[in-house]
Specification:
Layout (H helix, E strand, L loop, with lengths): L1 H17 L3 H6 L3 H9 L5 H12 L2 E6 L2 H7 L9 E9 L8 E9 L2 E3 L6 H8 L7 E4 L3 E4 L4 H13 L13 E4 L3 E4 L3 H7 L1 H9 L13 E8 L9 E9 L5 E8 L5 H9 L4 E2 H8 E9 L13 H12 L14 E4 L12 H14 L7 E3 L12 E6 L18
Parallel strand pairs: 14-15
Antiparallel strand pairs: 1-2, 1-12, 2-9, 3-4, 3-10, 5-8, 6-7, 10-11, 11-13, 13-16, 14-16
Helix pairs in contact: 3-4, 6-9, 8-9
Amino acid sequence: MKIVQRATLIALGLLAACAPTQRRLLAGHHYEEALAGAAKGEVDGGDLLAAIERDLEPGLHLQAVPASELRAHLGGVASVDGIVLVRVIHDANQIPIDSLDVSLSLLHRSTLLPPIEPDRETLAAVTGEPLPVPTVTVTPTVTRYKSVGFLELIGRVVANVATVGLIYPVLPILPSERSGGEVIQHNPDEAEYRAQIPVAEALRQWLQPPSCNGGLGQLCRGYLLWPRPQLGGDAPLELAVSVSIGGRGDAAILYRLAIPPGALEGGLAAMFGDRERTLEDLHRHHGRARIVVYPLDVLVPAPRGGFTLASRSEFQRIVLGTRKQPGLRAHPGLRFRIDPARLPMAEDTDRAAQVAELRLLLLSFGLSDQQIDILNAPAGPGLGNGLQVQYELPLAPDAGEPGPANPANH
């Protein structure tokens, strides 16, 4: 038995020695593998995303389209007082990750102001134009009787009289056929939309998404449309930038950047000037927060509900840390997001009970209810494995003034 135990320990030691360490993964730029390791608590997710951010060096430029130019593009008949059209340019270095997605919103106090959706219904509501309605064509039912010979007609009448009309559905006195009786809906075509909602259609063409790989190694150009923010008080209007990283889609770096006061057009001009700026530089001068978000996939459902003791212990280590390695609780702004529909759970386990179990587990680690978000009906695909962590990263050390950046109109 001792020999078997010794051999097992040696094998486990060899496996641990062969397992890629965080340093080796980052040095070799094995980012997708490292992202999977961060979800398992084997790699520090904050350090990993900060390293990816440094390699990506994402750049951004925003410029509001002047109201006169927007009005001219829309035919000079539309009121543009309530909307702001913004040209967006962004790019990033080509690095070994599966995907990159950049999304933007405005933020005032705790209210998120996403761009207006560029679909016809939404844009027509913004411009106040009535949408063309589908037309319906109804074809009436027409019954056509077939001609029959005299003797055949007599035979049909006699057969129906003899059976008191029971065979009439099968052998009618006069055979017939029916046609028509259809209801056909004709949806408006492109010409009808252009004729009836010309302003909304012009905006929709302007707001087509750019065809680029999220900016990985190439320039992305596009436009976003926002309702003009109605500001109040002394809280600044902020630009919220989300940089989603990797094939899983649920790891990201979020930036909150304070826009200089005044109208949105002037604030963006003061913030960006006439050149693209890196997000690091923007955060250094306008940053309100820099947040990492990534999934945690360490909890294993127990057969009778809850989570296994081993996975609970591993989760505790990740959150509370050890004497040598601080845990997640040491980070400022720590929050956990729970997606009940995607939590791992055994069959016949009550979902509400599983969520309650995870909430109590987090509370036992010293977190407060304010640090725990439970999603009711997540928008989009939801959290991949039901649990996501987020916290703030400190500002990167000052590396001096940034060098020349790519001009925004190159």
